[in-house]
Specification:
three-stranded antiparallel β-sheet, mainly alpha
């Protein structure tokens, strides 16, 4: 079948879109999966248009150009993107649209050559300096909680954290990983776990709790809503449900981004903060050991509430740990 761009070559459209959507139909009814595959193949579409042919007709060298174009900074990400392309090529072979899947034989480690601008992780001391420069405890505590292993689906463990969930004497926090709400829009408390945290975390939590107003990036002062959550919204309206609701997830990202912009620091995202915390925790576990064991990875995954330790293998390595915490 001759490849064609059914959208007329517009920016942001898939090349050979009809074929791509037939492929998406074969995946599953999960829209999140389809959206992810679409994002990956959209990046490949730029080179497809340049070469005027579908990905399923690419040479191995041309597919390599696609892999480099992702500009991935860790192995897990590029492996995931590679699986999308491999899945598409496999489907094309099954449908008689391609003669072979050129990525079929590649192992996860083989994708390391396509990693560029590798992530630079934060040592605990670097994180502390960022926290110290925050204008608000409300911001600093977000960095520290992520670093300690608090997160959950859509940051729900941070957003749901209330002062009554904090045991300042035993240095523990009770965490709720839930986005389920009742008929009033308030979170239903379930899927709880207890996490031991350090003194620094307790200090920042208490500082965030007693903070009454929030200094914005432009220097203005906004009142914070008066509720029992540790991380709170600014009081923009008088809606009672809003006042008693957790901070919205986009505000978590905005606060991190605002702090980073003020400090002129690039590429510090929630995932990197979490991974930096994993580095510190793994270093504490292994001590002077010369290797990181499978059991060590499982312990780290458990603390950061991950369902699997497998994704840690791509970045949580002895080499990366020792770059930050040399012995």
């Amino acid at each position: 079948m001759k490849s064609r761009d059914v959208t007329g070559g517009k920016n942001g459209s898939l090349y050979n879109e009809e074929i791509k959507h037939l492929f998406f139909d074969s995946l599953s009814s999960n829209q999140d999966t389809v959206k992810y595959y679409t994002r990956v193949l959209l990046i490949a579409s730029a080179l497809e248009r340049m070469l005027n042919k579908d990905l399923n007709q690419f040479t191995f060298e041309e597919i390599e150009k696609v892999l480099y174009s992702f500009k991935s900074n860790n192995r897990n990400t590029i492996v995931s993107y590679g699986r999308v392309i491999s899945g598409y090529l496999k489907w094309c072979v099954q449908k008689g649209l391609a003669t072979s899947n050129l990525l079929e034989q590649l192992k996860p480690d083989d994708f390391m050559k396509y990693v560029v601008n590798q992530e630079v992780y934060l040592a605990e001391g670097q994180l502390r300096r960022i926290e110290d420069q925050c204008d608000n405890y409300q911001d600093a505590v977000i960095f520290r909680l992520l670093f300690e292993g608090v997160g959950g689906k859509e940051m729900s463990e941070i957003r749901n954290l209330k002062i009554d969930d904090v045991d300042i004497h035993n240095h523990t926090v009770q965490l709720i990983n839930s986005l389920v709400t009742d008929d009033k829009g308030l979170p239903v408390r379930f899927k709880e776990r207890t996490l031991k945290v350090d003194e620094r975390t307790i200090e920042l939590i208490m500082g965030a709790r007693i903070q009454k107003s929030y200094k914005t990036r432009d220097g203005s002062i906004e009142d914070l809503v008066d509720n029992t959550y540790v991380v709170r919204s600014v009081a923009l309206n008088s809606n009672s449900n809003f006042k008693n609701s957790p901070l919205e997830i986009q505000n978590i990202y905005k606060r991190i981004d605002s702090v980073m912009r003020k400090m002129s620091i690039d590429n510090i995202k929630p995932k990197l903060i979490q991974r930096s915390g994993m580095m510190r925790y793994a270093n504490q576990i292994i001590g002077d050991a010369k290797e990181l064991t499978l059991n060590d990875l499982k312990i780290v995954a458990d603390r950061f509430n991950l369902t699997s330790y497998h994704n840690l293998k791509g970045f949580l390595t002895m080499d990366n740990i020792r770059k930050i915490y040399p012995k």
